[in-house]
Amino acid sequence: MPPATRRAGGKAVLALTASVVLLGAACTGQSGAGATDDPTKDTTITFWHAWSAPNEVRAVESLVAGFEKAHPNIQVRVVGDMTDDKINQALRAGGDRAPDVVSSFTTNNVGRFCSSGALVDLDPFLKKDGIDAATTFPRAMNEYTRFDGNRCTVPLLGDAYGLYYNKTAFEKAGIARPPRTWSEFETDAEKLTIPAGDSYEQLGFMPDYHGWETTTEHYLAQFSPTYFDEKGKSRVAKDPAFRQGFALQKRLVDELGGFRKLERFRSTLGDEWGPKHPFHTGQVAMQLDGEWRLGMAEAAEPDFEIGVAPLPVPDGQEDQYGKGYITGTVTGIAATSHKQNAAWEFVKYITTDTDAVVGFANDIHNVPSTLAALKSPKLTYEPRFKTFLDIAANPRSTTTPPSVNGGQYLVTVQQLGYDYESGKVRDLDAGLRKAAAQIDTDIAQAD
Amino acid sequence: MAAVTYAAKRRRAALRTLGFLSPWLIGFAVFFAYPLVSTLYFSFMHYDGFRPPVWSGGKNWAYVFTHYPLFWPALRNTLWLVVVMVTLRVVFGLGIGLLITKIKTGTGVFRTLFYLPYLAPPVAATMAFAFLLNPGTGPVDSILRRIGIPAPGWFGDPTWSKPALTLLALWGVGDLMVIFMAALLDVPAEQYEAAELDGASAWQRFRYITLPNISPIVMFAVVTGVIQTMQYYTQPLIAGKVASGVIQGAGTQFEPGYPDKSTLTLPQLVYNLGFQRFDYGSACVVALVLFALSMAFTALLMRRRGGLIQAGDRP
To answer: pTM of the entire structure?
Structure first.
């Protein structure tokens, strides 16, 4: 190559490399906008949330209206039905139309939100306003809204999981009360199952992991598992709670007809969010579900009486009956927002103003997320809903911890569940070891 | 002086050529070369979209090839679809094209009927197929059971999910039917007449007249089919979601390729890694694998079949 051409080629490579590096740099470093805006001046902030059902959207509108009344200078532009994928993508993209405040239905992504810097640390804001998170929010909610010393979210109502049961079917089967241990549960599920040829007239319980809320983490919560050790390594293969939880589910699958038969039956059932949900129609007699199911089930006007109870506990641990899996919606402020002080006023109102939290919980039939709201006389609920308030307040109730790569470890645990229930994985211990190794590798990859 | 003038003329001609080529060159550089180089660059970086990219060497490559549990099932599925689905689509499209060019009456109606499914939006078409092939409530299995044939689980069974996707692809074969029909109508009629006079059978006419004449179109259909199948995303994703009964909504996790990863394809991994896990480096690795496979398939096909050159065009 002649020297001039070589020089030109070298320049071209340099220019190309520089442009690539510049693009890379341009795509990053959007956080740290700082909270320099004046929240007393007229402004408009954008709030993204995940609720989509008409009654939920109305409840959000009512909540926002309450805020705008209290803060007439701050207008809130509300965008609903936003999944975590969309939220994560928008937080990275930034721009004028990106959200200032986001809320996510799951706590799974708190670790990712905090560790990536997508949402700002709210501790300075809380401190500035003299709010002590430890005495404001219930313990579990206080824990699941922060990661590695960074509080990038605060709880915005909570969810508690329990057992719904068909009281009429229970009476017909001669069952006096809801099961308190898993042994009782297995016996009851079999008693409540009425076969019809190769299918079912009534199934006692749909144990498959695809049975909507019967996911691994919801089962496992009743065994109080520890997902990670103090060094952040997976304990899936070490904590016996996982083995017990997986084994229970597999026993249920086998006792109630086997995986193939159950999956075939499941494919005939209505979807989770519609009125033809199999618990509403009486096709399934017991259902593991969140507190929202009560309102949805009653709205479907079933021809039986609905009972509500905590989920069973392992045999020999009857003293722990009453606990359950708890999670909830979280909210935080985008690092890309240039209106973080105004955004904080909004976040503070919707998460710590007792009347606002109570009003929202009443409207949306969720569990309030502050200790004051849980005790508020303005909290209205029907007697059965108290079961979920008690589960939420139970100190033995557990949640799934935040992780640097969001809920990826739960996907791995769930995948093992699918493989084990279908018989693809037969050696559970080997499966657990493999899952633990995968979780550790995924975390190392994300770190 | 004459030499200078000649050189200047050549330079002007070169500039003029470059000027005419520049729209394409700019497009190529902006929409192909730059993204490709950028993808290669990010495949060696740890980058989550927020923190600045950090050099990670071959870590992403090692992760995707040795630790990412979805990569090999997705690659196997993609290759299965490339081999089976593309072949069947081309054969079926050609068969329909042949039928349509042979029939004398109602041609317009049949053309419309066979082309219409291609216009159906992929999401709607996939959902319709998932309901039709539902093993519990779908009419297809009901009919099969009634006539005593074992009803497959279709999208609910890992053995049958890819054949079900192939059925869906065959239903929407209207695009290939149209191009094959145009190619078939373009074959000189006198060649068929001469062959008939020589006593050639229908198969011999197809083998020695039709096929050589339309071979560039067949090659075009295969190459574009391979590239499209490498990018196959919407249908397997929707089929898996609908069949699993768990619609991915707010707060739910990505479930890979229900049932049992059988509907997982490489483009789904690019989305999962890049825009759900925000591991852009690993997503770039999968994207580069897709690119390399597409190039390899295309090069192989072009070399073996002599590219898009018609039989009579060969020197």
So the answer is: 0.85
